[in-house]
Amino acid sequence: MELQRPGSPAFEIVLGSEVPEIVYDAQFIQFKSIGGEMEDQFEFARTTANEIAEFLLSGRAVTECKSRIFKRTYLLIPLSDGTEWKMKKFSAN
Known about the structure:
Mean pLDDT: 91
Oligomer: single chain
Strand content: 25-35%
Largest sheet: 7 strands, antiparallel
Distance between the termini: 22 Å
Number of strands: 7
Low-confidence stretches: none
Number of helices: 1
């Protein structure tokens, strides 16, 4: 499932396992551990799509950071409940 606001990078939700992925801008990824039942997949998709839609409509900005020790790039995405998604940068190559 792909969610995107015009002119902004896309979020992609990849289901099909007990550890679905959330991908942002085809560069950053976060894994979420959920149960193995089909209902768990549906609930995760529903909840995550709502969080992404709320973020896209809110106008909040993402923050690109680097880890202190290894200097790896990651992204912080603020959610409406005050928590943040920490998404790791990855390379498809």
